[in-house]
C-alpha cells in the first residue's frame, strides 16, 4: 500500500490507474449491454410472455437490486476500501450469463438479473467513486464523462454485436458467451491490477477545512436525507437521475418490442438498440468536460427536456429512419445529464462522506429502472407501448422543469466563493 507522500490527485498524475478503471468500466457496461437487444425478444419468442408487465419483471428485479446495492456500495467502500467492493461485484456477475444460457423458465432470467443488479451496483458504483477519488476537484466532469462514456459505448457495441450474433446463430447461447468473457476479464483485471484509491479521498478531505466533528462526515441517515430531499442540488440530482433511468428502463424493455411490431429485422433492432447508448456514450466525452467549464445546471435542464422531446418522437414514429433520429436525440439528452449529475454530487458532498452520497444518489437513479419497468409495463398493457412512451415523455418534461426551479449551480469554477457542504449546516439558496 502506498504512503500518503506517494498519493497525488489529478488525471495526469494517475493516468495509468484511471485508464485501467476506464477499461474495467467498459467491461461492466458490456455485461449489461449483452441483454439490451436479446432479452426482450427472448421473453416474447422463447418464453411466450404476452403481458408487458410480466415481460419486464427482469428489469424491475435488476433495477430494484441495483438501486439498493448502490446504497451499500458507497458505505462498504468507505468502510473496507474500494477495491474489495469492485472485486465482489465481478464475482456476482460471473454466474449471470450462464444462468441465462441454461434458463429453463423465466424465473431463472429474473434471478440472473437480481445477480446482475448486485454486480452492476457494486462494480459500476465503485469505478465511479474511484475515478472521483483520483481526479480531484478540478476535472471531475471530465472524469465522469470518460467513465460513463466507456460504460455506455460498451453497452452500445455489445447490443449491436449481440444483435448480429442472435440473427446468425439464435438468441442463445452465443450472445451470452460474449458476456461471460467480459465478466472473466473484468474479474482478472480488477483482482490483479487495480489499486486502492481510498487514500486519495482522504488526501482531498485533508485540504478542506470544517468542524472537527464532521471530518468523518455526518451519519449515513443524514446523508440519505440530504441527498434525497434536504439539500437542493443533491436532491435535484437524485430526482433527475431517477427519471433518466426510468427512460432507459423503458428503452431497454419496450423499444425492441415496438420495433419488432413494425417488422424490423433483428439486425435493425440491434442497430437501434445500439444507437441510443452509442450517442449517449460518445456525447459524454464532450458534456462532462463542458460542464467543468460552463456549469452543471444548464446541461441537466437541457438534457432532461431533450429526452422528453425524443420520447415523444419515439411514440409518434413508425419507421427505422424516424426512430433513428429519435434515438440520436435521446442519446444526446442523456449524455448531457449523466456525467453532470455525478459531477454535481462530487461538487457538493464533502470527500469524507462523498462515497456514501454517491451511493444514495445511485440508489435513486437506478431505482428508476424498477419504476420504469413497472410503470411502462402497466401502461403498455392497458393502452399500448406508444401510450407508455408518451406518459414517460410527460414525466421527463416535469423532471427537467423541477431541476430548473430548484437546482443551483454547483461547479466550483462557476461559484468561486462557494464552500463545500460538510453536512453540518443548511446550504444557502441558489446563487
Structural class by secondary-structure content: mainly alpha
- CATH superfamily assignment? MFS general substrate transporter like domains
Poorly predicted tracts of residues? 209-215, 425-431
Named CATH topology: Growth Hormone, Chain: A
Number of strands: 0
Major sheet characteristics: none
Rg computed from alpha carbons, rounded to a whole number of angstroms:
20 Å
The percent of residues in helical segments reads over 70%
First and last CA, distance: 42 Å
Strand content: under 5%
Transmembrane segments: 12-32, 52-73, 85-109, 149-167, 174-194, 250-278, 299-317, 323-342, 385-405
GO molecular function: transmembrane transporter activity
Domain Major facilitator superfamily (MFS) profile: 18-411
Main location: membrane
Write a brief structural summary:
Its main location: membrane. With 431 residues, the protein is an all-alpha fold.
Tell me the layout of helices and strands.
Elements: H1 15-33, H2 38-45, H3 52-55, H4 57-80, H5 82-93, H6 95-102, H7 106-135, H8 140-169, H9 174-192, H10 198-206, H11 220-230, H12 232-261, H13 266-294, H14 297-316, H15 320-348, H16 354-383, H17 385-406
Helix pairs in contact: 1-7, 1-8, 1-9, 4-5, 4-7, 4-16, 5-7, 5-9, 6-7, 6-9, 7-8, 7-10, 7-16, 8-9, 8-13, 8-15, 11-12, 11-16, 12-13, 12-14, 12-15, 12-16, 12-17, 13-15, 14-15, 14-17, 16-17
GO molecular function, one term: transmembrane transporter activity
Membrane topology: Multi-pass membrane protein
Subcellular location: Cell membrane
